[in-house]
C-alpha cells in the first residue's frame, strides 16, 4: 500500500513537471483495432460514468447529450491526430526558383491537449527550413502542426515530432520549430499562474549553428500586421 502511494505521488509529480519519456506518442499495439464509431460508444459510456460519479443529473436537458458530444470530440477532433490515416499528405515540389535562404512560417495557431491532465495547450508554432532542392506547400506546414497537436501531448515531444516529419518530407535536416504556448494545467489549476507560457525549440542541421538560429529567431520577432 505504501509502495502504491509512493508511485502515485511520483506519477503526479512527473505530470506537473511536464516530462515526456519518449519522442513517440505512447500507443498500444491494438490502438486502432476498434473503429471510430466503436470508440465513441465506449468512451460515451465512460464519460457518462464519470459525470454520474461526480453527482450530475444526466436527465437534465443541458447534460443529456454531453457524454456523446465529449466522445465524438475526443475521437474526431482533439485526439484525431492519433490515427495515422489522418496524417496530411505533404506534396513536395522542385525548388525551381533556386531560393536558397530559409523559409519561415510563423504564428501558426496551435491547439493541443496536455497528456497529464487532459487540459488545453494553446499557442503559436514557428517553423523554418532551408531547401536542398525541394519545397513544400505553405499550408502543409500548418497541417503537420495541427496533426501532431491533435493528440495527448507534451510540448517538447510536439516540437520534435513536427521537425522530424518535415525533415522526412523535405529530405533535409535543416528544419527548426519554436513553440510558445500556454498550458491550462498550469494556468487554471495547480499553481494557477495565468501569465506564464512555455517556450520550446527543436533545431536540426544548419539551425544548430548560432548565426542561422539567430536569423530564424529574428524573423519570428518581426511584427506582422496587415490590417
Description:
This protein has 227 residues and is α+β, with helices and mostly antiparallel strands. It contains 7 helices and 7 strands. The chain has helices at residues 2-16, 36-53, 66-78, 138-149, 155-170, 184-187, 210-221, and strands at 92-94, 102-114, 120-130, 134-136, 152-153, 175-183, 198-203. Strands 5-2-3-6-7 form a 5-stranded mixed β-sheet. A two-stranded antiparallel ribbon has the order 1-4. It is globular and about 65 Å long. It starts with a helix and ends in a 6-residue tail after the last helix.
Short description, anyone?
By secondary structure, this protein is an alpha+beta fold. 40% of the residues lie in helices and 21% in strands.
Overview features:
alpha+beta, two-stranded antiparallel sheet
Outline the secondary-structure elements.
Blueprint (H helix, E strand, L loop, with lengths): L1 H15 L19 H18 L12 H13 L13 E3 L7 E13 L5 E11 L3 E3 L1 H12 L2 E2 L1 H16 L4 E9 H4 L10 E6 L6 H12 L6
Parallel strand pairs: 2-5
Antiparallel strand pairs: 1-4, 2-3, 3-6, 6-7
Tell me the β content: 15-25%
Query: Describe the biggest sheet?
Result: 5 strands, mixed
Sequence of strands across the biggest β-sheet: 5-2-3-6-7
Secondary-structure-derived class? alpha+beta
H/I helix tally: 7
What kind of oligomer do you see? single chain
What is the helix fraction of residues, given as a range? 25-40%
Q: Count every beta strand, where a strand is a DSSP E run of 2 or more residues.
A: 7
Order of helices and strands: HHHEEEEHEHEHEH
- Average of the residue pLDDT scores: 91
Uncertain spans: none
Distance between the termini: 62 Å
Radius of gyration: 20 Å
- Gross morphology: globular
Amino acid at each position: 500500500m505504501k509502495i502504491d502511494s509512493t508511485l502515485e505521488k511520483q506519477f503526479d509529480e512527473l505530470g506537473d513537471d511536464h516530462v515526456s519519456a519518449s519522442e513517440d506518442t505512447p500507443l498500444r499495439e491494438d490502438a486502432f483495432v476498434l473503429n471510430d464509431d466503436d470508440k465513441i460508444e465506449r468512451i460515451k459510456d465512460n464519460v457518462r460514468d464519470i459525470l454520474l460519479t461526480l453527482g450530475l443529473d444526466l436527465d437534465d436537458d443541458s447534460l443529456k447529450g454531453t457524454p456523446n458530444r465529449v466522445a465524438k470530440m475526443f475521437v474526431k477532433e482533439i485526439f484525431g491526430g492519433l490515427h495515422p490515416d489522418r496524417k496530411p499528405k505533404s506534396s513536395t515540389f522542385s525548388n525551381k526558383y533556386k531560393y536558397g535562404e530559409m523559409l519561415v512560417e510563423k504564428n501558426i495557431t496551435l491547439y493541443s491537449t496536455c497528456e497529464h491532465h487532459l487540459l488545453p495547450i494553446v499557442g503559436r508554432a514557428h517553423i523554418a527550413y532551408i531547401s536542398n532542392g525541394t519545397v513544400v506547400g505553405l499550408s502543409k506546414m500548418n497541417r503537420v502542426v495541427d496533426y501532431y497537436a491533435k493528440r495527448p501531448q507534451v510540448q517538447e515531444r510536439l516540437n520534435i515530432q513536427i521537425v522530424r516529419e518535415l525533415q522526412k518530407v523535405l529530405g533535409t535536416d535543416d528544419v527548426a520549430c519554436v513553440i510558445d504556448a500556454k498550458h491550462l494545467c498550469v494556468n487554471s489549476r495547480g499553481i494557477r499562474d495565468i501569465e506564464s507560457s512555455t517556450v520550446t525549440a527543436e533545431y536540426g542541421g544548419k539551425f544548430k549553428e548560432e548565426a542561422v538560429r539567430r536569423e530564424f529567431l529574428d524573423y519570428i520577432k518581426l511584427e506582422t500586421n496587415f490590417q
